[in-house]
């Protein structure tokens, strides 16, 4: 039986209460129908999050740096296979399910975003192609006789929509005008859904255009592309509509509104369905929710489950495969190798095993691997130090973390704070006056993220969740980060501040230290420097022939979910360490390890070799060493442009990349490293660029080919990148935009013809006047090369398309939000579930409607308006918002309610024809729509006589 038929058969036999129960994220069993329990939710961004270890790949932004969709399909297949095995275990793993909440396709517009490491790229096309590959692998397809393919997992795209900041995301809305929506933020969701490789989408916690994304009217665009698309809530997001966002006063109104907006599955109060189900039943009683709405949501959920084969006989269990773990580990290593980006190299790399002399490995990230929240448990750890030692051949390898070592003494009596043994579970207590290893801590200084203190005596980190402080944590990890501290100065002493409990440490009567005290009850301490990390690092570096310095940022600490970064440079302590090491030994390879771009102009100018990698999972050390020692030539390419400073980034809540000229698409700022950048141990020559047509029209596809030759003596991969730009754009369009790419392997001296396909429709922009995509006619420059700034060959393609037509604003209603340009306005919700409007932030705010056709000249304006202070007037001007021809003014109505609107009108007088039309608004005025009405047609003589 086909999945749709099987789902419909079950749906017909469900009671209404059973249908309602299915809308909760932890669906209960229906034994009488043979329907088992089902969990909508499992994390798998770069490895399955489970109760047991699994294969952990590089962070998603590292996978993005591979520019290799086929590799991501293999990665997705490994994760899907491991999920399948976990759910076939007896008992099944409790932490995962077949509906996987991955991948993250939010575009990486701003590297300060705390969750930057979860996405692939700032570019829509690269994100789409990688996400499609990953989803194909996750989903898999297994034939069922006569019933179509069985999915292994059901991938879920997250987080819809325009989600790139953490601070105030529950309460402060961001503006996404139609061009930015359709050309940028919507694309990775809509294009991947159209590929048919996902089962679901998850809205974000944030608000766009005044409305929470769990109520977004834009979800319908995805539903139009796939009517069976399931919409699942993020954790606790339904309750947030009431408790944090306060968009509704109670759940009985919020939850049916979410269902009407498109939500199918409520992830709320994990394991406790009563709150959700009570609210839904109350909504039914109040007449706010009908059975048809519930049935439609349950149908989509059942169809997803049917495609997973849940209602069929389970396929036979896979045979034992003793080689599976080794194959998965080999793929994890390959993913690291392909993701490492060589930013700079003056010939220091690659190092030659056994011929590099003494190698000093330095830095706090050299002897550790960092986990994050969405990558699972590591089955083992190969650190950079491990990998370098393994591949160094006869070269001697030394190590120095380069961190300060300190002791903490109580100011009152001089006793050291010491770490207890296993019998006390590492409790921190006021000890004696003798300096021992138990009183010493290595300080890992993460800058704005605070410091972590690791005991020298047991090698474990200090932490607390409110109980006395103790050193028994292997690493900073967990949803709530409890291992970060700050040493605040107070007069001539210090107070130990604990970030998690938001208070100071105080010694108790029994000698233990309890965090959370106010300053007056805190215990003043003195910090004794036992060893300066930079001195030790300099000595180690100076005594070596070559240095590999591993520095960067820490997941959970330097930005995470709920915490954006304030800066994008190296933490100051690590920047100082880098300067010191390079001063001591210029032959230094700097490996930058982070889940986001780093503004490091000084290092870019001083380091002889500079590498970047995201945190890379279990095989990170081996993959990094493969690149350092030349076992492979690096071919990772930056999925984001790197700024020179945080000042190049603007406001993190400014999502209008067009007006603010953000991302590589529009920015005219010189980046530190451009989008697509990455060096190789070889060199490549590009032959003449060939287009199979020099002119094309919308609907056409053009084949672009180029011969690429490896002119070096090293086998290597090259990532061939195709960009286009309009030479005569009718409105602001990207300075250059990626339209195709291919990662190709070329042996030394080999040549390969690389073909790339360009779809002319992809050149389109969102025409706000017509509400559809339009391709501008004229010449386009076709550019091919190794990065967005390393263009090797160029050609011109002429696009023949209808010229832009003037906007019709007379006699037809125009949505205010469909403006071409603006100043000092924000976009707001017109009603709770539908419509968008514009609100003036200040007097003199304006909206531009470019090339408006005023016909014979407008006679009056009719507008749907709200807000505004008494006496405010809307001005209608031509050509300029300040001194342009004034057609007339409209008194803004005073409305009390947020959703109160009135239709008002006023006479106009002025010329007809085509003009740039400006509407100038007073502070607080809200405009939903308007129309300019033509004068009445003059009466004919016959009509006058009648």
Can you describe what's shown?
The longest helix has 20 residues, at 69-88. The strands form 13 sheets. Strands 1-2-3-6-8-11 form a six-stranded mixed sheet. Strands 12-29-28-27-13-14 form a six-stranded mixed sheet, sandwiched between helices. Strands 40, 42, 45, 47, 48 and 50 form a six-stranded mixed sheet that branches. The protein is built from 20 helices and 51 strands. It is of the alpha+beta class. Strand 28 (588-593), helix 17 (601-606) and strand 29 form a beta-alpha-beta unit. The chain folds into five domains: 3-8 and 15-307, TIM Barrel; 339-401 and 534-639, 3-Layer(aba) Sandwich (Rossmann fold), CATH 3.40.50; 412-523, Trefoil (Acidic Fibroblast Growth Factor, subunit A), CATH 2.80.10; 682-799, Immunoglobulins (Immunoglobulin-like, Sandwich), CATH 2.60.40.10; 807-933, Galactose-binding domain-like (Jelly Rolls). It comes from Plantactinospora mayteni.
CATH C-level class of the largest domain is Alpha Beta
Question: Please, how many helices?
Answer: 20
Strand order of the largest sheet: 1-2-3-6-8-11
Mean pLDDT over the full residue set: 95
- Which oligomeric state applies? single chain
- What are the low-pLDDT stretches, counting only 5+ consecutive residues below 50? none
Proportion of residues in helical segments: 10-25%
Strand content: 25-35%
Please provide the count of β strands. 51
Per CATH, the superfamily of the largest domain is: Glycoside hydrolase, family 3, N-terminal domain
Secondary structure category: alpha+beta
User: What is the CATH topology descriptor of the largest domain?
Assistant: TIM Barrel
Q: Rg, please?
A: 31 Å
Main sheet summary? 6 strands, mixed
- How many structural domains are formed by the residues? 5
Distance between the termini: 73 Å
Reported CATH architecture of the largest domain: Alpha-Beta Barrel
Shape: globular
């Amino acid at each position: 039986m086909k999945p749709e038929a099987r789902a419909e058969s079950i749906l017909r036999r469900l009671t209404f209460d059973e249908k309602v129960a299915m809308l909760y994220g932890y669906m209960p069993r229906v034994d009488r129908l043979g329907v088992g329990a089902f969990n909508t939710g499992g994390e798998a961004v770069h490895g399955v999050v489970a109760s047991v270890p699994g294969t952990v790949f590089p962070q998603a932004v590292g996978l993005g740096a591979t520019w290799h969709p086929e590799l991501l399909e293999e990665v997705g297949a490994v994760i899907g296979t491991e999920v399948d095995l976990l759910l076939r275990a007896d008992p099944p793993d409790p932490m995962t399910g077949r509906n996987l909440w991955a991948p993250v396709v939010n575009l990486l517009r701003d590297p300060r975003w705390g969750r930057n490491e979860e996405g692939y790229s700032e570019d829509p096309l690269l994100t789409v192609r990688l996400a499609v590959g990953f989803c194909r692998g996750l989903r898999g397809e297994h034939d069922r006789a006569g019933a179509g393919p069985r999915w292994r997992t059901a991938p879920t795209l997250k987080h819809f929509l325009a989600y790139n900041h953490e601070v105030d995301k529950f309460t402060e809305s961001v503006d996404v005008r139609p061009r930015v929506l359709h050309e940028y933020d919507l694309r990775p969701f809509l294009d991947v859904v159209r590929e048919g490789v996902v089962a679901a989408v998850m809205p974000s916690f944030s608000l766009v255009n005044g409305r929470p994304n769990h109520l977004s009217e834009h979800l319908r665009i995805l539903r139009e592309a796939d009517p069976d698309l399931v919409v699942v809530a993020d954790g606790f997001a339904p309750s947030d509509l009431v408790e944090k966002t306060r968009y509704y006063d109670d759940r009985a109104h919020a939850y049916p509104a979410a269902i009407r907006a498109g939500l199918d599955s409520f992830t709320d109060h994990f394991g406790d369905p009563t709150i959700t189900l009570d609210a839904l039943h109350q909504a039914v009683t109040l007449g706010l929710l009908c059975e048809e709405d519930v049935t439609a949501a349950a149908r989509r959920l059942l169809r997803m489950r049917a495609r997973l084969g849940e209602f069929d006989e389970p396929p036979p269990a896979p045979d034992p495969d003793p080689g599976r773990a080794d194959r998965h580990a080999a793929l994890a290593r390959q993913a690291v190798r392909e993701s490492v980006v060589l930013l700079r190299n003056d010939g220091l790399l690659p190092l030659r095993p056994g011929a590099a002399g003494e190698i000093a490995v330095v830095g706090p990230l050299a002897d550790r691997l960092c986990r994050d929240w969405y990558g699972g448990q590591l089955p083992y750890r190969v650190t950079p130090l491990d990998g370098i030692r393994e591949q160094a051949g006869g070269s001697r390898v030394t190590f120095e973390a380069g961190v300060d070592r300190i002791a903490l003494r109580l100011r009152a009596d001089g006793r050291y704070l010491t770490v207890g043994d296993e019998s006390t579970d590492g409790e921190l207590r006021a000890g004696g006056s003798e300096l021992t290893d138990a009183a010493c801590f290595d300080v890992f200084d993460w800058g704005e993220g605070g410091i972590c203190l690791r005991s020298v005596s047991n090698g474990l980190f200090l932490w607390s969740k409110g109980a006395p402080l103790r050193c028994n944590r292997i690493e900073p990890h967990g949803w709530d980060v409890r291992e970060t501290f700050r040493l605040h100065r107070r007069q001539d002493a210090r107070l130990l501040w604990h970030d998690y409990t938001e208070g100071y440490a105080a010694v108790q009567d029994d000698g233990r230290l309890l965090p959370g005290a106010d300053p007056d009850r805190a215990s003043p301490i003195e910090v004794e420097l036992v060893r300066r990390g930079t001195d030790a690092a300099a000595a180690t570096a100076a005594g070596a022939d070559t240095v590999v310095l591993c520095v960067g940022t820490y997941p959970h600490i330097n930005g995470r979910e709920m915490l954006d970064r304030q800066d994008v440079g190296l933490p100051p302590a690590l920047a100082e360490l880098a300067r010191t090491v390079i001063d001591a030994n210029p032959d230094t390879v700097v490996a930058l390890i982070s889940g986001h771009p780093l503004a490091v102009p000084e290092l870019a100018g001083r380091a002889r070799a500079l590498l970047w990698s995201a945190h890379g999972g279990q095989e990170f050390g081996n993959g990094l060493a493969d690149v350092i020692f030349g076992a492979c030539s690096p071919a990772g390419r930056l999925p984001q442009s790197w700024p020179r400073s945080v000042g190049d980034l603007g406001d993190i809540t400014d999502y209008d990349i067009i007006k603010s000229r953000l991302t590589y698409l529009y920015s005219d700022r010189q980046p530190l490293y451009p989008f697509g950048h990455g060096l190789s141990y070889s060199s490549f020559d590009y032959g003449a660029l060939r287009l199979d047509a020099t002119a094309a029209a919308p609907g056409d596809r053009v084949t672009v080919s180029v011969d690429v030759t490896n002119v070096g003596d090293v086998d290597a991969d090259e990532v061939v990148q195709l960009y286009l730009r309009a030479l005569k754009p009718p409105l602001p369009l990207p300075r250059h935009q990626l339209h195709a790419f291919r990662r190709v392997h070329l042996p030394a001296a080999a040549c390969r013809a690389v073909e790339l396909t360009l779809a002319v429709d992809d050149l389109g922009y969102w025409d706000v006047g017509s509400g559809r995509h339009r391709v501008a006619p004229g010449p386009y420059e076709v550019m091919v090369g190794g990065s967005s700034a390393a263009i090797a060959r160029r050609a011109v393609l002429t696009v023949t398309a209808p010229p832009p037509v003037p906007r019709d604003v007379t006699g037809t209603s125009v949505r205010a939000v469909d403006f071409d340009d603006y100043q000092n306005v924000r976009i707001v919700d017109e009603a709770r579930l539908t419509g968008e409007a514009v609100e003036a932030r200040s007097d003199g705010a304006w909206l531009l409607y470019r090339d408006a056709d005023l016909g014979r000249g407008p006679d009056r304006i009719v507008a749907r308006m709200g807000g505004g202070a008494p006496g405010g007037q809307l001005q209608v001007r031509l050509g300029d918002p300040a001194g342009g021809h004034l057609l007339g003014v409209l008194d803004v109505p005073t409305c009390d309610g947020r959703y109160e609107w009135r239709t008002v009108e006023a006479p106009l007088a002025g010329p007809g024809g085509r003009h740039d039309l400006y509407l100038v608004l007073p502070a607080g005025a809200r405009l939903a729509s308007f129309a300019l009405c033509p004068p009445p047609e003059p009466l004919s003589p016959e009509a006058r006589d009648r």
